[in-house]
Amino acid sequence: MTENREPDRPIIEIAGLSKRYGPIAAVDSVDLTIRRGEFFALLGPSGCGKTTLLRMLAGLELPTEGTIRIDGQDVSMVPANRRPVNMVFQSYAVFPHMTVLENVAYGLKVDGVPKAEVRQRSEEALELVKLGGYGARRPDQLSGGQRQRVALARALVKRPKVLLLDEPLSALDAKLREQMRFELVNLQESVGITFVIVTHDQDEALSMADRIAVMNAGRVQQTAPPAELYEFPRTTFVADFIGSVNLIEGRVEASDPGRVTLSARAVPVPIEIEQDAGLPVGTTGWLALRPEKVDIAKQPPADAARNTVAGTVEEITYLGDASVFHVRVGADHPLVKVTIANVDRVTGRPFTWGDQVHLSWTPTCGTVLAQ
Ligand code: ATP
Predict the structure, then answer these.
(1) For the whole model, what pTM was predicted?
(2) What are residue 277's phi and psi, to 5 degrees?
(3) Which of 53, 87, 167, 268 is most buried when burial is the number of CB atoms within 10 A of its CB?
């Protein structure tokens, strides 16, 4: 079942793709290239258009505008059953009256594949999803996770070039969902087929995908590997949607190669950021700063190169593995979040409500964004 990974040859090329329902643009001028053998995630909040985009790849919806090419072929108007893709649905509907093996074999039988081959390929697919000995069982004798694997085997048995997965883990409980993330990644690696998964769960996308397209209001805001999205978000939406972030509004005072200076009302001295893509001087810029990159101390930092601001601890959230301190740095400014990993066993609090503190961070760890 293994297809050669050729990461440089795209398997899916989407150009100018839109889907409108009356006045609503569910998908709005999307351009996207998905590489061969990639585990790709479409991530975004409810209503952002990710399911509509996936359904257009499957052929279950036709585009209003634009083209979809799969493995070099324009499939924009090709019906679902003639596309080299297969889809696993959120509800992983398996036929309850058939055995596991019959469920997996069904699609091949309908296609008229010879009986012996149907059996061999179905058994192989069950082995692949670790259900080798379960062929004779009925779906109601399986756990939720096992039923989901039957649905996966049923999709993989047809050897699609691309497997489309619509929130495949959302019906499972939290522990099982986490375990299935590993299984899906291992499965994808062993079959080498391109997986395109839709999810609204950022942890799911970050932990499984090679690359993620973050969508909002029908548009793709940024496409990048997980760590790049987290460390170098390109919009305030992406910065805020992936993980937790402090957004500090300011004005760009200087913009030199590799360095941006921002003045913010909440911070008395100019903020220095080491960043290549500068913004025009005089424009509004948002400093996106991750809470774990901010240091909190009773004294100002000794290192003059660190950006610093004084404030008062207003709220504390204890999360077990970490504590979040919410610090007031200005009367009308949102609280700045600072996360401290609880590396040692926590017996007391390093800071408490009302403490005067100094927050600081290095010029390398924030990003200035135009929007
Ligand atoms: P969710 O995570 O809630 O499923 P989503 O990101 O997958 O959301 P879509 O289901 O793609 O979003 O929907 C995008 C937009 O298009 C929404 O505003 C939705 O109401 C609208 N929409 C989707 N399908 C239709 C339809 N058949 N008719 C009219 N509007 C639709």
Answers:
(1) 0.90
(2) -80, 95
(3) 53
CA 283 to each of CA 266, 270, 271: distance values in angstroms, whole numbers, following the listed order: 17, 15, 15
Q: Is residue 349 a contact partner of residue 360, using CB atoms and an 8 Å limit?
A: no
Are the folds of 10-236 and 244-369 the same?
A: no
The region that residue 279 occupies, defined by phi over 0 for left and psi between -120 and 50 for alpha, beta otherwise, is beta
Q: Residue 52: CB within 6 Å of ligand 1?
A: yes
pLDDT tens readout for residues 308-347: 999 999 999 999 999 999 999 988 888 999 999 988 887 7
| pLDDT tens track for 354-371 | 999 999 999 999 999 998
Q: Is the pLDDT of residue 186 over 50?
A: yes
Q: Give, for ligand 1, the residue of 18, 24, 64, 219 to mutate: max count of ligand atoms closer than 8 Å to Cβ.
A: 24
Average pLDDT rounded to a whole number, residues 163-169: 92
Is residue 50 within 6 Å of ligand 1 at its C-beta? Answer: yes
For the chain, the domains span 10-236, 244-369
Q: CA 124, CA 130: separation in Å to the nearest integer?
A: 10
The residue type at 111: D
- How many A from CA of 47 to the centre of ligand 1? 5
Find out whether the beta carbon of 24 lies less than 6 Å from any atom of ligand 1. yes
Å from CA of 48 to ligand 1 middle: 7
Identity (one letter) of the amino acid at 10?
P
- Closest CA relative to residue 201, chosen from 41, 349, 312: 41
- Residue with CA at minimum distance from ligand 1 atom 14: 49
User: With respect to CATH, is domain 10-236 assigned 3.40.50.1000?
Assistant: no
Task: Look at residue 214 and give its three-state secondary structure.
Answer: strand
Between 93 and 210, the higher pLDDT residue: 210
Distance (Å) from CA 207 to ligand 1 centroid: 25
